[in-house]
Amino acid sequence: MQRFSENDAKYAYSSEHASIGTVEPGERFEVESVEGFGNTFSSPAEFTRESYARAEALKWAVTGPISVAGAVVGGAVAVTIHSVEVTTPGVVVYGAYTAADPYAWWDDESACAIFPAEGGTVRFDERTTLPTRPLIGCLAVRPDEGSPHAMLQGRYGGNLDCREIRAGATVVLPVGHDGGGLYFGDSKALMGDGEIVGPPEVGALITASAEPRTRPTSMTWPRIETATNWTTLVSGKPLEWSARQAYRELLEWIVADYDIARPQAALLMAMVAQTGICQISNTDYTAYCVTPRDVWEPYR
Known about the structure:
The chain is mostly beta strands. It is built from 3 helices and 21 strands.
């Protein structure tokens, strides 16, 4: 099995990056995902202004780009996540969180905490141990143009911080350059919706496969497919714009794939679809809209 090293990590998504390798359609491969602070902190005592500055320069490292044979401009690439194995303790940089406006909490960083993460659990403290639910915070293809920093997100994917990008999910991304050029990084041990303050960053070994697809005419933003759900992801501002666009994107998907009129599909979505927040910590805010698949089976 091919394994792509964290030594090939970048800090942007760009068509100017040389491919670090090529995978065949359906071929399983492994990707080393760099711990979010670049392994700067192994204990809380190592947090200083100087070490924090070094860690900030190492954040949002993504391994790639990895080419997918047969992926072409104007098409799509479907990335199936088979496993996300946590390989380091969880690291969080945090503050007092006393500002009246929680918007300021994201940059309130004056200490770090280390959470043991092994055996499928995260030990929060002597009273609380939680099951891990590892996810991939950054998953992208080369964008159509430019070289956005890896902390950013867009139609190419990127720093979506969606807790459903995890084992068992297939993430479908629009392809802007031949080969696609996949990037992986920013893995977390577990995370709630919103990312108001930082969840535990971890190193991870990701096992994935990818296949080229024809891009549906209804698709303009990333999608997630699981055995039970369809999900769309949209990033922008304000948050309500992202949420409404994610709803619209999912409606376009349903109307294209099922024998149901648009008004009826929208009304049924109003009863069964859920719209929520992936993250509101980045430059653009990412919202999702999700529907159970079985609801639509009568309209095949």
